[in-house]
Amino acid sequence: MKKTFLNCALALALCVSMSGGAVMAEETDKDIMLISADTAVEPAVLMPVQVNGTVTVLEDGALYIKNDNEESIHSEVIARISEETAVVDAETGFAMNPADITDGSVVYAWLGNAMTMSIPPQSTAKVIVANVAEGTKAPAYYEITGTAKTEENTVTLPVLGGTELEISADTQLMPFMTRNIVTWDSLMPGSEILAWSDDEGNINKVLVFAYKYNGYLDIDGNKVNVSGMDLSAESNTTDEIVYAPLRAVAEAVGYEVSWTAEKGAIISYNGEEMISVLPDSDYATTSEGETYLIGKCIFDNDTAYIPAADIAFFLNLYFVK
Asked: Residue 65: is it exposed, middle or buried by C-beta count within 10 angstroms (0-12/13-18/19+)?
């Protein structure tokens, strides 16, 4: 029977502290091999690896970067470009054709944490900023990790790494590769942005990438919030694991929830079963097989609970830590 793991690469997080945020993996014909964990663990949030410097374009389109970032342990890296990589013009904020990046140009890149053990190490880029004019400041990449706080004319955004961004309400907001209008409400947990700032650190322009989640799950004490909506059902903490009420969260996102004695709680979308989990089970059944949970499914007062990180993963919600 096929079994999958909720976050099979998370065991690699133990290696992060000695590798400057990058997780090293053996190079294979499939590019990067991740190590499976024996048990599911709560997701570790890792910073992308930031590099910058002059490039040499390789035959396969990848970029060899002589890294000038003194905070990185890598003096040189190879950044691969995939269909998901956002290549941004530093001057305009518009999408750039990767083919327009030439030898000797300067780029800033944010790479995935799983890097090959080759020399130089290789990883796929999340974001590449090119066409950086000499003497100018390149925009910086951030991932928003919590809800925005507004005070007078300033918006404060918590971002990955434990810091905060303070942005004026007058700051220009622009979408990436879409005509959709973006507003401050677009800057929700899980959003990814590029921010341009002046020499004093004041942010004057923010580029908002397409949101890749179905919303976000935020648990504060016993209160459960889905994408800004407070739920009447409360969370449950058992053995130091935070549990979320399965039905309430799933229905808040737009899924249907049913129950059978054979399968337990069933989450469906448009009548198609997606996930099922039995009481006291340490795994959920999906179309891909059995996926281990961080903790067993529990029932309390006729309510089914599974770990909040698990239900966020299954429903493609950003989990606010």
From this structure: buried
Beta-carbon contacts of 5 under 8 Å, excluding residues fewer than 6 positions away, are 36, 37, 40, 291, 292
First to last CA, the chain: 33
The answer to whether 130 and 178 are in contact (CB under 8 A) is no
What distance separates the 2 farthest-apart alpha carbons in the chain?
Answer: 67
Q: Residue 157, class by beta-carbon neighbours within 10 Å (0-12 exposed, 13-18 middle, 19+ buried)?
A: buried
Lowest mean pLDDT among 63-77, 98-112, 114-128, 183-197: 63-77
Whether residue 216 is predicted with pLDDT greater than 70 in this model: the reply is: yes
Q: How far is residue 92's CA from residue 81's CA, in Å, rounded to a whole number?
A: 20
| Residue 44 confidence (pLDDT) | 64
Contacts of 311 (CB under 8 A, 6+ apart): 217, 244, 246, 249, 250, 317
- Residue scoring higher pLDDT (154 or 89): 89
